[in-house]
Amino acid sequence: MKNSNPSRAIVIGAGLGGLSAAMRLGAKGYRVTVLDRLDRAGGRGSSITQNGHRFDLGPTIVTVPQVFEQLWADCGRDFRAEVDLWPVDPYYEIRWRDGSTFRVNGDDTAMEAEVARLSPADVPGYRKFLRDSETRYQFGFEGLGRRPMNKLMDLVKELPGFVKLRADKSVYAHAASRVKDERLRMALSFHPLFIGGDPTRVTSMYILVSHLEKEFGVHYAMGGVQAMADAMVRVIEDQGGEVRLNEDVAEITVKQGRTTGVVTEEGEALTSDIVVSNADPGTTYEHLLSKQTKKRWTPKRLNKSRWSMGLFVWYFGTKGTRDQWADVGHHTILNGPRYNGLLDDIFIRRKLADDMSIYLHRPSVTDPTAAPEGDDTFYALSPVPNLHGKSVDWAEMTETYRANMAKVLNDQMLPGFEDHLSASHIFTPQTFVDRYRSPFGAGFSLEPRIFQSAWFRPHNVSEEIAGLYLVGAGTHPGAGIPSVVTSSEVLNKLVPEARNPVIPPVQRLAAE
């Protein structure tokens, strides 16, 4: 028999962090309501469709399927039975302006041959780098990343590991200590850009991504990340929860230092036992809790924090091109003429450079549903400065930057593609502010520097308000699909079982 007065939880935001949190709260017996201001679930992993082209707006790959398998298992379900996940091979190809390339896959022999093709003398150093990566994966992802870090002692206990693994070195500095070829240094160090960090300044702990790729592969969800988000919604609804779209939260309500629920922009007051925010921590503390006095995450502190770079993303479709550009696969990284200098322009000088590097996503070579038959769907992403301080006027610069990007794509990868354009849509950092309420238009919340990681990051259990919890890219363990989903695993260890479960525990266990 279902409880007529169950414990209730409200989740703000239907991103992957919020949806995974809702699933785990539902498994604990909470009646969960998820509220999101967008018209599709998935947050930055949602999609839009234009002229038959489905554009995945944000993340495009899954690197640690096990976190989803565990999430589904925690809810008594089978992830593989509900989501069609395909391995991508090669994972991606890196291209430089001199014509050299580097194709990445999971085969050790093939990868060493790729390294040797660029720089035979760097093969031994490459092997050492992979060993370093595995060590940091065990310490950083399986260790720190899957445990709460909301108490200072949680950090103090790990300090010897940080010292031993030289967490003070940057990702680029560590790669440079292992290989001499500048192309390989780039190929082994660029990964922090996919979680919003400057490779020349974020902690070398993030070289663990190289092990993730090697050990678990790179995968694509058929139907895009949107299909994964939709599958998560089905689990939540099967648990008795609800996902309400086009519902914007205006305020988290507080009484005597404890959250009591939320108020929507339409003025509807919803009460709950706990609130979980998948909104950016900056948005949570500065806007959703604007009436509350903060001790740690004050507006001044948030303004002084270092935020991840912005993103310029051009989503476009081409008609009748499925058999063209046969050398352009699912994922391609096209380097500009500079690496370190461009990073300085983006992160330090906050200058919109004339040159650019581009990540090109072509899902239609793997997933026919991404485009009309015979057509192609693409997105081209370029890191740019965020909107903090002196910022770019994107109302003025959008078309100029798009035209520059088109020229690079035409000259380097997709000759003549503009003659086939059948759909076009652009996101700038200003879009991230307007669509996601992202502070300063940052693409990945707080930059994952060493003093903005682990305990130094906004905690999963709020330091400010009792009964409030945080998940998603801006909290521990950080950005990227595996970490965002793992934030709900950490949450699961902090939130108590529902006092009045939707289904009494015995019946719930029997049902599982």
From TrEMBL:
Keywords: Carotenoid biosynthesis, FAD, Flavoprotein, Oxidoreductase. It comes from Gymnodinialimonas phycosphaerae. One of its GO terms (biological process) is carotenoid biosynthetic process. NCBIfam families: crtI_fam. It comes from the Bacteria. Residues 16-487 form the Amine oxidase domain. Its cofactor is FAD. This is Phytoene dehydrogenase. GO terms for molecular function: oxidoreductase activity, acting on the CH-CH group of donors. PANTHER family: B-CAROTENE KETOLASE, PHYTOENE DESATURASE. Pathway: Carotenoid biosynthesis. Pfam families: Amino_oxidase. Belongs to the carotenoid/retinoid oxidoreductase family.
